[in-house]
Write a structure and sequence with these properties.
- The chain is α+β, with helices and mostly antiparallel strands and 220 residues long.
- It has two domains: 87 residues, no CATH class; 126 residues, Sandwich (Immunoglobulin-like), CATH 2.60.40.
- It is built from four helices and eleven strands; from the N terminus they run H-H-H-H-E-E-E-E-E-E-E-E-E-E-E.
Length: 220
């Protein structure tokens, strides 16, 4: 039991202005606790003093809280340093081409577009249809057999399309007899910058979009 509440309130008021700092600074939090503990000891009932086990328990609690706050500060610092290192490493991706889920052909290299697709299983017949954004057919590429997993194809459309070929779409059709084989198209994009957002390494692409590094399927 604590007597002399006015004195305790005074001690609390004295540390009140530092409450914001104490919430984040372990040393301030520990100093505030010790001041309150001393005030409590000074105003305890002489006939019913604080139990030693109770005081030990309170000391253990403040040490635990202080330790957790220090750990949180250390982890936050490490996270910030790790993110800075990630962005620095991400700059090595600038100028490279990455594959991510999508169906645009992207910018051509030497006039030839290279894109890819993943097949859920092997296919006896695979063809790629090149279309405009509105769905108009521009060209069809017969690839023959396709293997399960990653498959690449190239398309030289200089003589077949005079517009902005980077905006063309492609559709993969893979079959085994009458059965369709699932295909996931992968669009190529050039990386022009690296940044961070919400703890993630982000790559800025040539089409103005941002891509999380974890969404990159391949780099070449």
């Amino acid at each position: 039991m604590i007597y002399g509440a006015g004195n305790v309130d005074a001690a609390t008021a004295k540390t009140g202005s530092n409450s914001k700092t104490a919430g984040t600074d372990p040393n301030e939090a520990q100093d505030r606790f010790l001041k309150l503990l001393v005030a409590q000891l000074n105003n305890q009932d002489p006939m019913n003093p604080m139990d030693n086990a109770q005081m030990t328990s309170q000391m253990a609690q403040i040490n635990t809280v202080t330790g957790i706050q220090q750990l949180n500060q250390t982890m936050a610092s490490m996270s910030s340093q790790f993110m800075a290192m990630q962005v620095l490493q991400g700059t090595s991706m600038i100028g490279r081409t990455v594959l991510t889920e999508g169906n645009t052909l992207g910018t051509a290299a030497d006039g030839t577009h290279t894109a890819a697709f993943d097949l859920a299983g092997s296919a006896a017949n695979v063809k790629v249809q090149i279309t405009t954004a509105s769905g108009e057919l521009v060209d069809t590429i017969e690839l023959g057999q396709g293997t399960a997993g990653r498959n690449y194809f190239t398309w030289d459309g200089k003589d077949k399309y005079t517009g902005d070929a980077s905006q063309l779409r492609y559709v993969v059709q893979a079959t085994n007899g009458a059965s369709a084989v699932a295909a996931t198209s992968l669009s190529p994009h050039a990386v022009i910058a690296a940044s961070s957002s919400n703890g993630q390494l982000m790559l800025e692409l040539d089409d103005g979009s941002s891509l999380a590094h974890s969404a990159v399927k391949a780099v070449y």
